[in-house]
Amino acid sequence: MYNLNLEITHKSSDTNARVTKFQTPHGEVETPMFMPVGTLATVKFLSPEEIKEIGSQIILSNTYHLWLRPGTDIVAKAGGVHEFMRYNGPMLTDSGGFQVFSLADSRKIKEEGVTFRSHLDGSKLFMSPEISIEAQNKIGADLIMSFDECIPYPTTYDYAKDSVERTIRWAKRGKAVHSRDDQALFGIVQGGDYPDLRKHCAEELVAMDFDGYSIGGTSVGEDKETMYRMVKDTIQYLPENKPRYLMGVGAVNDILDAIERGVDMMDCVLPTRIARHGTLMTSTGRINIKKAIYKDDFTKLDEKCDCYTCQNYTKAYLNHLYRCNEGLGNRLFSIHNLRFLIKLVEDAKQAIKEDRFKEFKEETLKNMGFDERGF
Questions:
Q1: Active-site positions?
Q2: What is the reported pTM?
Q3: I want to staple 315 with a disulfide (CB 3.0 to 4.6 A). Which of 42, 211, 279, 294 is the partner?
Q4: Which helix (H) or strand (E) holds 303?
Q5: Distance CA 14, CA 12 (A)
């Protein structure tokens, strides 16, 4: 087991928010942090150098997608994912479980694993805990994830219970074949919106002594209040001396709520996905840059943002790029949205250090147009 040596450096006095730091083979990181997603060993439209420049600490790649293309043997032959994509910084891979289980029409779940069809060519594939962990060992990220079953919302209690037990057994099997002591392996807590199942799953995984713990099964169709309750019903059973990772969260209100509850790490494709459609995050709320009102608006996108896009280009130019479908637009939009979220979490971290996180959260959400509940 790789020892991350997590150290809690600051705690909020009136929330569960915290600042921690831990060590990876590719450098020390400080949390809370938002992690950009580079599904195919690339964050869409950005170079590794640009990812560093916007302040990213950890980036993600996806086991399922790299397993299919170019194949994990090729990634391993290149020297691992860091060498393959020339990124000299900490990296994380998810297990592929979410992608496998999103193929609901073609998958068949058995105790051995999951049979499903490739989203590329329809060919028959099989993924198991052992295959997932062995693939991640070949990919070589610093942090890797257990293979779990991500259930849909809503689902019945009986199905959720069976799924949790399967996820626990799969976690144990994956841990048994994990062969690299330079990779930290996380367990993933499931259980849907059932508090007792979340508690049971968390306690069983904690007993296995993973290097860190992920909160899975959120952002799968549930409403905000349900999602926040899922996080609360999980995090209270996770150890303080291990990293806590909330998977698939990228909206501002969700990020700040998670930090308030004691989450350390978050990721999502949202900032780059909405960027491609011209939706940009700002300190006063989201805007759609393709609207005609921006055609002759020669102001910065966001006066409070320090990203390359905001420091160099006007809304009018960004509107022009979108309307002309120019590739530079996608790059500039993605740089902005990613930097916006990374800076948001940097500011939240500073607020925790100064013991004013609650006020920071309330002010930030108010300025962005959220109601008193943060919705």
A1: 94, 267
A2: 0.97
A3: 294
A4: none
A5: 6
